[in-house]
C-alpha cells in the first residue's frame, strides 16, 4: 500500500468512527451536542474528500474543544487514539515533503504497535496477570462487564488464565507481524477478534471502530519496511 | 486553549497501559432526600446508579455495536468518579450531578402514571469495590451534598 492510499483510507475509516461517536453524543447533554454536530459534518466532508487538509485542521480544533469540554478523554483509550489519528492526519497534510509525511505516518504506526506491545508488557510483569487473577478481578468487581451474566465468567478461573496468556502473547508478539504481509494480515485479524471480544464482554464498541481506522498505517509501514527485511 | 493542548499530550505520547493493575472500581449510588439537611440518608435509601442488566440478548449486542450511548456514558461516569477522587476540581462532580439529574428526570417521567411522590433533592456517593483476599470489600469514599432534582440550567 502506498502512502497516499494509506492516508486516504485512514481518513475514510476515521471519519466512519467519528460519525459513529458523534451520533451517540447528539442525544447527550445540550452543551456537548454542538461539538459533535460539527464533528459529524466535518467527518462527512472528509469522507467525501472535500479539502482534506482544511477539514483535518478543523477536526483538530474540534478535538481540542471536546477535550476541554470533558477535561480529558470521554471514552479513555478510544478517544486517545482518535486524537492521535486526527493529529497525525492534520500533520501529514502540513508536511512539506513526502519524506516528512512518512515520518508522521510512521510515528502513528509505531504508536499503534506500542498500543499492543506496551499493554502486553505491562501485563506480563504483573504476577496477577500471569496467574489469571487480574482478569478474574476484571470480571469480579470492575465496572466493565456489560451484564450480570458476564460477571459469571469469574467462575471459570482456568479459562480466564488461558485467556490472560492468549491476550499477553498476542500483544507482546504483535510487532513480529511486520516481518511479512501474510503475518500482518493474520495478526490484524486476531487483534480485530480481540477488540470484538472486548466489545461483547465490556461494551467497548468505539475501540473496534477506532483501532480499525489505524490499521492502514500498519499495512503501509509493513510494505515500506519489507525491502529492509529482505536486504 | 493552552489547557486543552496540555490535555492533548497523553494522546500524542500515550502510555498504552490498559488494565495493568485492577484498581478499586467505583460505583455511583443515589439517594433521594426531602430536605437539603446535612445528615446522611439511611443505608436502605441508596440505590445503585445505572445497574447493569441481568443479560444482553444477541439483538441488543448487535445494536450496541453501532449505538451504545448509555453504556459509554456509564463508563464516563466511572471515569468522573475516579477523577473526583483525584481532586480534579469541580468538573467531574458537576458532570456526575448533571447526568444523574437527567436520569432522575426520565425516571420521573416514566413513573408519573404511578403518581409516586417526588423528592426535591438527591445526593450521590462513590463506593469503591475491591478484593481483599477472596472477599469483596466496599468503601464509601465520597458523599455529596444534597442537590435539587430539578435545575432548569441543566436542560
From TrEMBL, chain A:
Every HTTM-like domain range: 8-223
Source taxon at top rank: Bacteria
Pfam families reported for this sequence: HTTM
Principal location listed in the UniProt entry: membrane
Keyword Aminoacyl-tRNA synthetase carried by entry: no
InterPro entries associated with the record: HTTM-like (IPR011020), HTTM_dom (IPR053934)
Residues annotated as transmembrane: 36-65, 77-94, 100-117, 138-156, 208-225
Entries under SMART domains matching the protein: HTTM
Protein name: Vitamin K-dependent gamma-carboxylase
Automatic annotation (TrEMBL), chain B:
The protein's name in its UniProt record: Uncharacterized protein
Amino acid at each position: 500500500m502506498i502512502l497516499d492510499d494509506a492516508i486516504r483510507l485512514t481518513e475514510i475509516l476515521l471519519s466512519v468512527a467519528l460519525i459513529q461517536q458523534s451520533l451517540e453524543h447528539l442525544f447527550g447533554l445540550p452543551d456537548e451536542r454542538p461539538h459533535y454536530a460539527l464533528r459529524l459534518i466535518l467527518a462527512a466532508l472528509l469522507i467525501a474528500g472535500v479539502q482534506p487538509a482544511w477539514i483535518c485542521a478543523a477536526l483538530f480544533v474540534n478535538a481540542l474543544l471536546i477535550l476541554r469540554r470533558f477535561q480529558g478523554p470521554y471514552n479513555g483509550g478510544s478517544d486517545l487514539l482518535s486524537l492521535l489519528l486526527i493529529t497525525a492526519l492534520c500533520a501529514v497534510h502540513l508536511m512539506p515533503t513526502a519524506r516528512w509525511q512518512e515520518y508522521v505516518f510512521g510515528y502513528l504506526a509505531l504508536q499503534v504497535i506500542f498500543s499492543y506491545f506496551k499493554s502486553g508488557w505491562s501485563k506480563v510483569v504483573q504476577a496477577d496477570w500471569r496467574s489469571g487473577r487480574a482478569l478474574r478481578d476484571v470480571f469480579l468487581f470492575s465496572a466493565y462487564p456489560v451484564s450480570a451474566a458476564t460477571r459469571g465468567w469469574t467462575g471459570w478461573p482456568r479459562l480466564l488464565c488461558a485467556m490472560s496468556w492468549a491476550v499477553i502473547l498476542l500483544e507482546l508478539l504483535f510487532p513480529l507481524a511486520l516481518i511479512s504481509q501474510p503475518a500482518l494480515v493474520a495478526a490484524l485479524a486476531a487483534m480485530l477478534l480481540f477488540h470484538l471480544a472486548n466489545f461483547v464482554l465490556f461494551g467497548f464498541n468505539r475501540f473496534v471502530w477506532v483501532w480499525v481506522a489505524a490499521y492502514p498505517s500498519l499495512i503501509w509501514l509493513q510494505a515500506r519496511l519489507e525491502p529492509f527485511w529482505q536486504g | 486553549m493552552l489547557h486543552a493542548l496540555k490535555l492533548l499530550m497523553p494522546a500524542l505520547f500515550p502510555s498504552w497501559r490498559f488494565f495493568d493493575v485492577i484498581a478499586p472500581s467505583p460505583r455511583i449510588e443515589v439517594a433521594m432526600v426531602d430536605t437539603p439537611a446535612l445528615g446522611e440518608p439511611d443505608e436502605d435509601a441508596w440505590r445503585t446508579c445505572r445497574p447493569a442488566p441481568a443479560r444482553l440478548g444477541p439483538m441488543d449486542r448487535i445494536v450496541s455495536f453501532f449505538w451504545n450511548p448509555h453504556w459509554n456514558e456509564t463508563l464516563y461516569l466511572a471515569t468522573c468518579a475516579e477523577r473526583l477522587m483525584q481532586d480534579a476540581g469541580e468538573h467531574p462532580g458537576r458532570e456526575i450531578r448533571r447526568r444523574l439529574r437527567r436520569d432522575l428526570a426520565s425516571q420521573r417521567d416514566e413513573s408519573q402514571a404511578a403518581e409516586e411522590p417526588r423528592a426535591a433533592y438527591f445526593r450521590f456517593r462513590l463506593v469503591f469495590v475491591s478484593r481483599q483476599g477472596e472477599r469483596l470489600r466496599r468503601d464509601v469514599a465520597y458523599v455529596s451534598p444534597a442537590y435539587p432534582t430539578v435545575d432548569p440550567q441543566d436542560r
